[in-house]
Amino acid sequence: MIEMPSLQFAQTNGIRMGYYEAGPKSDTPPVILCHGWPELAFSWRHQIKALSEAGIRVIAPDQRGYGATDRPEAIEDYDIEHLTGDLVGLLDHLEISKAIFVGHDWGGFIVWQMPLRHLDRTAGVVGINTPHMDRAPADPIELFRMRFGDQMYIVQFQDPAREPDRIFGSRVEQTFDAFMRKPVPRSDTAPADKPVAGVGASPRLNLAFPQMIAGYDAKHDPRTPILSPEEKKVFVDTFTKTGFTGGINWYRNMSRNWQRSGWLDHTVRVPSLMIMAENDHVLPPSAADGMEKLVPDLEKYLVRDSGHWTQQEKPDEVSAKLIEWRKKRFG
């Protein structure tokens, strides 16, 4: 039995956003849970239950381009200014002055931007797998192309013909079968875990995800699924309806985000927690080395024996750490 609160809607920043809320409305500051690609608010189902039962107010949106939330046509409507602005608008809708923002994967990239762009609305930040990094020295798409070649999935995502969107959209169940699994020790035959935008991976990893999905057969995959059939159905049914273009449009703004961020001070000036996953092959714990220079008030925590989908692979441990840190830092 999957437990999720009832779906609600907010008008925010020019779109209608679907979100889920649980826990006492009197609790402050509340926790906003921000998912990655290709995910949904549903990815936080375990944390929504655990945090709300611990007396913490928790809110998990389907973000712009995903699930129950609007999917604008224009690519530039998915830049970091829009994505962070959506969260500010959600706070306005709920009449919340400040929140703790928790993000995994692409959601992690967004939540680390919140105290840089909206410090007055940000009480704290938690990154799960995704570290905070300084501005790249050059356009990140060009850096990816130089390091990994044209087949690297983020480079492929820039394709104006949207071939990756078509490949994923025509193989939705294959996509989630391939991605949502526990890792095995690296070998030449195991599919790569899905990496996160903006962070370097090992050149050994197979990052040609559209082609990997096109040739994928679950019968030959030795890795253990992390979703029950009922849970997988939620993702498959949702993305069958919405397609993948909304989420991929976040990647299509990486050059724009880089060009428009030269003015930002990248120092994070709020209490912060970095949760790392021991076996995330693309975002290893070492990706967070040196974060303290940019995040002076930082605690780090390592989740052992977890791959990329940490809050779903090790839900009890992640929830317990979030509750412990939230109560220690905010009462």
UniProtKB/TrEMBL annotation:
InterPro entries the UniProt entry points to: AB_hydrolase_1 (IPR000073), AB_hydrolase_fold (IPR029058), Epox_hydrolase-like (IPR000639)
A Pfam family that the UniProt record links to this protein: Abhydrolase_1
Keywords: Hydrolase
SUPFAM superfamilies: alpha/beta-Hydrolases (SSF53474)
Coiled coil: none
Keyword Nucleotide-binding: no
Keyword Lipoprotein found: no
Residue span, AB hydrolase-1 domain: 29-315
Origin: domain of life: Bacteria
Molecular function GO labels: hydrolase activity
Protein name, UniProt field: Epoxide hydrolase
Provenance organism: Bradyrhizobium valentinum
